[in-house]
Write a structure and sequence with these properties.
Chain C: This is ABC transporter substrate-binding protein. Chain C: It comes from Psychromonas arctica. Chain C: Keywords: Signal. The complex is a heterotrimer of chains A (about 220), B (about 575) and C (about 425). Chain A has about 220 residues and is an alpha/beta fold. Chain A has two domains: about 150 residues, Rossmann fold, CATH 3.40.50.300; about 60 residues, no CATH class. Helices cover about 30% and strands about 25% of the residues of chain A. Chain A is built from six helices and ten strands; from the N terminus they run E-E-E-H-E-E-E-H-H-H-E-H-E-H-E-E. In chain A, helix 2 packs parallel to helix 4 and helix 4 packs parallel to helix 5. Chain A starts with 7 loop residues before the first strand and ends in a 5-residue tail after the last strand. Chain B folds into two domains: about 250 residues, MetI-like fold (Orthogonal Bundle); about 280 residues, MetI-like fold, CATH 1.10.3720.10. In chain B, about 75% of the residues lie in helices and about 0% in strands. Chain B has 25 helices and two strands. In chain B, strands 1-2 form a two-stranded antiparallel sheet. In chain B, a hairpin with a 4-residue loop joins strand 1 and strand 2. The longest helix of chain B is centred in the middle third of the chain and has 38 residues. The two termini of chain B are about 35 Å apart. In chain B, about 55% of the residues are buried. With about 425 residues, chain C is α/β, with parallel strands linked by helices. In chain C, the strands form three sheets. In chain C, strands 1, 2, 3, 6, 10 and 11 form a six-stranded mixed sheet that branches. Chain C has a three-stranded antiparallel sheet with strand order 8-7-9, covered by helices on one side. In chain C, helix 7 packs across helix 9. Chain C is globular. The chains are: A alpha/beta (about 220), B mainly alpha (about 575), C alpha/beta (about 425). Chains in contact: A-B, B-C.
Chain lengths: ~220, ~575, ~425
């Protein structure tokens, strides 16, 4: 798939505040296949930003500004209708479903056979061939992370948010998984926002890096 | 795991045996005390030969099949209803502040003794009840109450209504207790968020992601509710038909019949009751299998939305109706406790008086003291023992065996009516004359399982790494237990304590039987009065019964918040 | 003390057979020496009973009665330093079960029940399984005040000889009551009741047997219905039931009930479980006519707003079932002397007179006023202000009907349950 000019996530003049106190302000546009990296210590408002992006801003926060996904305004769209995929540091696979079930859960409705083939192919691509019927609890950490990634990607999101996605993986695995994730983001041409602590994540993402200070705003280009 | 050999660890290691003994001996002993007479052995009545005549008598009882059917049907339907409504409420209000509010409104229902709840509901729905007064005579034209066969209908609808309203808060509280546990709750909520980010509407997300995991934690409580309702006495006695009554009510009446030879039939009936309860549990498990089988493809079919709005509206309606029923019952109860004469179709009493409160409060001191002493001692024992047993599990790095796990729920799964009469006989055998100890002992049978039920999951879910980290820092196991695990588990422990107290407060049959009637608690007084002629006095007692546990529940919910707030 | 002619006859024949066959002299001598030994025995009882704890198992559903027992506890505390504990029962059979369980467990000495309020089928049951201490009632000095030799009801409980196993405490007769504002055609006979209920369907019912009050209503009906039968057949109601007497007497009852039931509350498809529920239904105005065994509960219920102020009570003209209630001591009571002291106190003119007062309890005395000194008699004078409902209409011109032989209870219950128990 080629990068499409249409695909973008635009944060338009966002101002996030808590009890009248400005937490951060941001004005960015992320194009399909690009990764916007947000860095900063805890308390700097990273997770609040993510919550706003997925539409789950806690009630004690206040947001001003708009969010556009592929030129459509989605600021007030319910979170489950936003088509924004989420990848956490924990894979959060559903324990009551198999690997295949977890992925099928995420996929749009469709012919059973087609979906099944698609899952097999995807698993194959990330080196998990034949693991369809396994229980997620019995997979290694790296395997779980890959299933979680497939789950997000096969749900056909229009953008993707990465919340410290690699922080629980050891360095070897981290590198591999990271590479896989960024490859897939490119492949599906998704605008991505990544929140991380880790400098190397930011470098690997090869995109714009924004560093948030606690309760203030700083920008630096990489 | 290698554990240091200290007094604490030895104590902990041996606690499971104590727990098992405390539960097995009375239940099995009590069962024996029923089993022997069931098969015709009751020397005190001059019956010394084993035989089946008890059962022959039992099956010749007119309407026995209706009794069995009524017991089976009402408990299955009410448990199913309570479960479905619980799930609907959770699904509709998951992540909404209303969940907490509903819980706060329903919480007190949990602690209303069954008899008082039944009377309160009865007052609402009887032809001369509050509901009928609300619409009379302006809408209905009724100057005298209509002569309807409801409550007391032969199909057990009024029993189902009563049982459902009583079971629902319990199931909801259990579910919320699970969700309140940091580990499980956080994971489930995050998973729900994932489902949401994958495009699932919150309702579908709940059913496909949360429920399958949550159900595992609710399973035993549900089975306990099912077993309890199949053999409960108070609600069917007050709201149910008596032509014929449910089997459990009939058994109690036979046990209490002046014709002592009916004891043998009653004992045979108790055995039949056990079989009914077992088959109910079996049916539920079959139902589970069926649902599981049918739902596998449903879970992963990719459908994001199933008329969620419709279901949500329906749930709003059910919840509103339910809460209004409860509120109206409460209002009626309060009105009764202050009522002068109150004739149909007056919506309000002719005058309000404080006579009922003042005379009841004068007589209430001893029962109140007894209630508190018994409940607090029982709950303390239950909490301590439960924590030790759970700690023993962690030290042995395995959960207690399947058999022990089952035994803990024995008193909940075996109808109490079947073994309590035998238990009194057992107390006689060991010649235990200390009424207080006997009562605490028998309360423990019912409090312990609930406390264990409500604590076990949180304890088992506690991240083992906390203690590993602490141990690696050279901290003693006892210190890890007292200073690390207990504070982490403060909230579930307090809730379990409040639950334990509430369960103890509400015990009627065990208090009456093992206390030889010498120990009056608020509940025994209330049931005695509830069976009496004055709604007014029983309203006072019922309200007292609600206030008492409600106080402890509020403490249990508020204390951890204060505690953690102080820590910043 | 009113006793039916039937009892008088039985007594006379018994006396003729057993007592007067002995020499009349020896009877008198025996009476003297008995009196002497009684007082010695009684001193002994007083000595040993002092300071004992006595657990009195008595139905606790009525606040007035509970208060009376509390008063009695205070009195015996002052007199004998006895600690009288009222164990409140919902049903007397609980105490019966308890003693039975103790016997089953070979606890023959250290029972939990010292004194139990009892009569009728509960007594018959306990007597049958030998759960009661025997031959003690005669020892009580105050027992003589009931004039037992002239008053056979004091030594018979529902027709069963008490054999000194219980001491009388009070007596009651079936009393009906109604709301005088709502009912102006009060049914005063059994046949009236049927007609009234047909005219006003759904406003009368009775508790499901074997409830005591429900059973009492059935007994009343059976006694009245059997009056058309020859005397010899009627008398069979006071004897152990046989297949023959059943066939002669019960069909009339079933025929009556078959007619009555469709007119009852809930069309006779549901019956309340106990007598107190009747009062609640009266209070809810679902019923308009009801009945009770303790007439005194009516004014007291009115004072507590549990019944409308316009409630009035009356007795049926064709007869009112009456019975005596007793206290008994289980065979394994460890405080038998204390229990006797309490039983004796309960029989004292002071206690009986207080009990008879409507504001206290209103339960009729069992003492024979002719046996009392003028001062004692004066205790019974009524000078209290009474509610109108305390004046029982027809009280002076009702016939008191005696209880049936207890064996009828089981037969009636069983057949009732077969006929009407499954609907």
């Amino acid at each position: 798939m080629k990068s499409q000019s249409m695909s973008s996530l635009k944060i338009d003049n966002l101002q996030l505040s808590q009890q009248g106190k400005l937490l951060l302000s941001l004005n960015e546009e992320v194009k399909g296949g690009e990764v916007l990296t947000i860095m900063g210590p805890s308390g700097s408002g990273k997770s609040t930003l993510l919550n706003w992006l997925v539409g789950m801003l806690p009630s004690d926060f206040y947001a001003n500004g708009e969010l556009y996904l592929n030129q459509q305004i989605i600021t007030n769209t319910a979170s489950h209708l936003r088509n924004i995929g989420l990848l956490y540091q924990d894979p959060l696979l559903f324990p009551h479903l198999t690997v295949e079930g977890n992925i099928a859960f995420a996929m749009p409705k469709g012919d059973k056979k087609t979906r099944k083939d698609e899952i097999s192919e995807a698993l194959n691509q990330v080196g998990l061939a034949g693991m369809e019927k396994r229980c997620p609890q019995n997979l290694s950490g790296g395997q779980q992370a890959r299933v979680a990634l497939l789950r997000v990607l096969l749900s056909k999101p229009k953008a993707i948010l990465l919340d410290e996605p690699f922080s629980k993986l050891d360095s070897q695995l981290r590198q591999e998984t990271r590479q896989l994730v960024f490859e897939q983001i490119q492949r599906y041409s998704l605008p991505a926002v990544m929140v991380t602590h880790d400098e190397s994540d930011a470098i690997a993402a090869q995109g714009k890096v924004i560093t948030l200070d606690a309760l203030s705003l700083n920008q630096a280009a990489s | 795991m290698i554990v240091a050999n200290t007094l604490f660890t030895r104590l902990v290691r041996n606690s499971p045996y104590l727990l098992i003994a405390l539960l097995v001996v009375p239940v099995l002993g009590g069962l024996l005390g029923v089993l022997l007479p069931a098969f015709g052995w009751f020397p005190a009545l001059g019956a010394n030969e084993f035989g089946l005549f008890g059962f022959v008598q039992l099956f010749n009882t007119p309407g026995i099949e209706r009794m069995v059917l009524l017991s089976f049907g009402t408990s299955l339907v009410s448990t199913l209803l309570a479960f479905v409504i619980t799930v609907l409420i959770l699904a509709s209000y998951f992540n909404s502040p209303w969940l907490k509010r509903i819980q706060r409104l329903l919480g007190p229902i949990l602690v209303i003794p069954h008899a008082a709840a039944a009377i309160a509901i009865g007052f609402l729905i009887t032809p001369s009840g509050f509901l009928s007064r609300l619409i009379s005579p302006w809408l209905t034209g009724w100057d005298i109450p209509p002569d309807w066969l409801f409550p007391h209908d032969p199909y057990g609808l009024s029993i189902i209504l009563g049982l459902t309203l009583k079971e629902l808060p319990f199931l909801l509280l259990i579910a919320l207790g699970v969700l309140a546990q940091p580990e499980i709750g956080k994971t489930l909520k995050a998973q729900h968020k994932v489902a949401s980010s994958l495009g699932y509407c919150p309702m579908t997300g709940f059913f496909k992601v949360i429920l399958p995991s949550l159900y595992g934690y609710m399973r035993l409580p549900i089975l306990a509710v099912l077993a309890y309702s199949s053999a409960s006495v108070e609600i069917p006695l007050i709201l149910g038909s008596n032509t014929p009554p449910t089997l459990a009510v009939a058994i109690m009446q036979w046990f209490n019949d002046v014709d002592l030879s009916l004891r043998i039939k009653a004992s045979s009936g108790a055995i039949l009751q056990i079989l009914i309860t077992l088959s109910l549990l079996g049916s539920w498990c079959l139902l589970e299998l069926l649902v599981k089988k049918c739902s596998t493809s449903f879970l992963v079919n990719g459908e994001r939305e199933y008329g969620g709005m419709l279901i949500q509206r329906m749930t709003h309606l059910i919840t509103t109706v339910m809460l209004s029923v409860i509120c109206l019952a409460l209002v009626a109860m309060v009105l009764w406790s202050f009522a002068g004469f109150w004739s149909f179709p007056d919506l309000l009493p002719q005058q309000l008086v404080t006579l009922h409160w003042s005379s009841a409060l004068l007589q209430m001191q001893t029962p109140l003291f007894n209630t508190l002493v018994i409940a607090i001692s029982t709950t303390l024992i239950a909490i301590a023992l439960t924590l030790f047993v759970l700690e023993a599990e962690q030290q042995n790095t395995k959960t207690i065996s399947a058999i022990s796990g089952f035994i803990i729920y024995l008193p909940l799964l075996i109808p109490s009516i079947a073994f309590l009469f035998g238990l009194v006989w057992l107390f006689e055998q060991v010649n235990s004359q200390h009424a207080y100890i006997n009562v605490v002992f028998s309360h423990l049978l019912f409090v312990l399982p609930y406390v264990f039920l409500s604590l076990a999951n949180s304890y088992r879910r506690l991240d083992p790494r906390f203690s590993t980290v602490a141990a690696s820092l050279g901290v003693q196991p006892s210190k890890i237990f007292w200073q690390l695990k207990l504070p982490l588990l403060l909230s579930p422990i307090l809730i379990a304590s409040a639950l334990g107290l509430a369960i103890s407060f509400s015990q009627y049959l065990p208090t009456l039987l093992s206390g030889a009637g010498r120990i009056n608690t608020i509940t025994t007084e209330a049931v005695t009065l509830a069976n009496g002629a004055s709604r007014r006095t029983s309203a006072v007692y019922a309200l007292m019964q609600m206030l008492l546990p409600a106080l402890f529940f509020i403490l249990a919910w508020a204390a951890p918040k204060l505690f953690f707030r102080n820590r910043g | 003390m009113r006793v039916s002619n039937y009892y008088r006859k039985i007594l006379v024949s018994l006396c003729l057979l057993s007592v007067f066959s002995l020499s009349s002299n020896s009877f008198a001598d025996e009476a003297n020496s008995t009196a002497e030994s009684t007082s010695r025995v009684w001193k002994n009882v007083e000595m040993r009973g002092t300071k004992q704890d006595v657990y009195f198992h008595a139905w606790g559903g009525d606040q007035q009665i509970n208060n009376y027992i509390q008063w009695a506890a205070k009195q015996v505390k002052e007199k004998y330093k006895i600690n009288l504990h009222h164990v409140k029962l919902t049903d007397t059979s609980e105490a019966v079960s308890r003693v039975l369980a103790e016997k089953a467990a070979d606890n023959h000495r250290n029972g939990q029940v010292d004194l139990v309020w009892i009569n009728g089928a509960n007594f018959a049951s306990m007597a049958k399984y030998q759960l009661l201490a025997a031959d003690w009632a005669g020892e009580l000095p105050n027992f003589q005040l009931t004039n037992p030799t002239n008053n056979p009801a004091m030594t018979r409980d529902f027709g069963v000889p008490t054999q000194g196993m219980e001491a009388p405490w009070g007596q009651a007769a079936l009393t009906f009551y109604f709301d005088s504002l709502k009912v102006n055609d009060v049914p005063e006979t059994l046949s009236d009741l049927l007609i009234w209920s047909e005219k006003h369907p759904g406003h009368f019912t009775y508790p499901k047997p074997p409830d005591f009050l429900g059973m009492s209503f059935l007994k009343y009906a059976l006694l009245v219905l059997s009056e058309s039968q020859p005397k010899s057949i009627q008398d069979k109601l006071y004897q152990p039931v046989t297949a023959e007497s059943e066939a002669e007497l019960l069909p009339a009852l079933w025929q009556f009930l078959d007619q009555l039931h469709p007119t009852l509350w809930r069309q006779g498809k549901h019956f309340v479980s106990n007598g107190l529920a009747l009062r609640r239904l009266m209070s809810d105005t679902e019923l308009q006519v009801s009945f009770t065994f303790s007439a005194a509960e009516i004014p007291s219920a009115i004072s507590r707003y549990d019944l409308p102020d316009s409630t009035r009570s009356y007795r049926m003209k064709d007869g009112s079932l009456s019975n005596i209630h007793f206290v008994a001591i289980p065979y394994n009571s460890p405080h038998i002397e204390g229990a006797k002291l309490v039983a004796n106190f309960l029989l004292s003119p002071e206690a009986q007179a207080r009990k008879q007062k409507t504001v206290i309890w209103g339960d009729s005395s069992v003492l024979d006023l002719s046996q009392l000194t003028p001062t004692q008699k004066a205790l019974f004078d009524v000078n209290e202000q009474q509610h109108l409902s305390a004046n029982i209409i027809n009280i002076d011109n009702t016939r008191l009907l005696s209880e049936l032989h207890p064996s009828w209870v089981k037969v009636i219950t069983e057949q009732w349950l077969t006929r009407y128990g499954v609907q």
